[in-house]
Structure formats: C-alpha cells, structure tokens
Sequence to fold (66 residues):
Amino acid sequence: MFIFLIAVLYLAFVSLGLPDSVLGSAWPSMFGEMGVPVSYAGIISAIIAFGTIISSLMSDRITYKL
Fold:
C-alpha cells in the first residue's frame, strides 16, 4: 500500500507541471483547429491554474482518506 501511495503522489506532482508546458507547445496548432482566437489561451491558462490550486488543496484530504 505504501509503494502504491508513493507512486500515486509522484505521478500527481509530476503531472501538475505538464499542463502549462503542453499549452505553450500545443496551442499554436490547436487554436486554428478549434476555431477560437489566440487570446483564449489566457482563459485556458487561468482554468489550469485554478485546477492546480484546487487539486493541491484537496490532496491533503485525499491523503488522509487513503
């Protein structure tokens, strides 16, 4: 159980840094296909930041439940 928890925590914290870099590298090709203006990248970045904050605040509660 301890090894599983360590693996989950490792994957969770590594994946927290992925959305920002993926947005930066993928947005130039995505916005044209989605038919939205380039400025929508700021809205998506704000949603990612909000999700990161919520997940980091909730991780303590999830850890206690496990």
Q: What stands out?
A: The first helix runs from residue 2 to 15. The chain has three helices and no strands. The two ends are 9 Å apart (CA to CA).
